[in-house]
């Protein structure tokens, strides 16, 4: 029986680094424009602390806008800044994200030996990148939070995906970049886990054994060799 590999989208299959750079520059300038008086070094330190401490939850970069605003400005500014930046960030994200360079080659290659799926909190807009490259046909199961109604790390979105396979759970593998919403719930359910490190979340450290992945990779190009070592 073929193993089933599930992928996260953002910062796993999708390269968001250009958008991260744009986001940080825009938010940094906006916060200071409203009187935050925070230098870039402290901005990055504060942002990284939010990621490491699991304060940055499941709703993406817009949640980080609110958190950073609350920590650097008087109360109430977070809603104003969120409204100001929301449309710009959504537009720029669609414009700046791309697939990691190795994805168009690695996905067809893996599909020859494994069944493939997606479990992601990203929107269908991000998933459309796969269609643009003709890669959507390789994914037998696609579970997006906007369609399912549940967001990772809720086990329900994972169970929805797993129910669509004919593979036993110990033959299912989750590849994702976040310890808190990808690795931990997959481990709790009995899946095998692989952490992708080419991500903003690479600074996370496991808080407990449930957050420890079976393997760690720096690039998806390492997957074939890693997968060959998983029984």
Automatic annotation (TrEMBL):
Write down the superkingdom of origin.
Archaea
What UniProt keywords apply to this chain's record, in alphabetical order? Answer: Hydrolase, Magnesium, Metal-binding
Query: Residue span of the signal peptide, if any?
Result: none
**GO terms for molecular function, please?**
5'-nucleotidase activity; metal ion binding
> Which Enzyme Commission numbers does its entry carry?
3.1.3.5
Q: What is the species of this protein?
A: Candidatus Nitrosocosmicus franklandianus
Return one Gene Ontology term, BP aspect.
Answer: small molecule metabolic process
- Protein name (Swiss-Prot/TrEMBL): Pyrimidine 5'-nucleotidase YjjG
Q: Which family does it belong to?
A: Belongs to the HAD-like hydrolase superfamily.
User: What cofactor does this one take?
Assistant: Mg(2+)
- Gene3D superfamilies noted in UniProt: 1.10.150.520, HAD superfamily/HAD-like
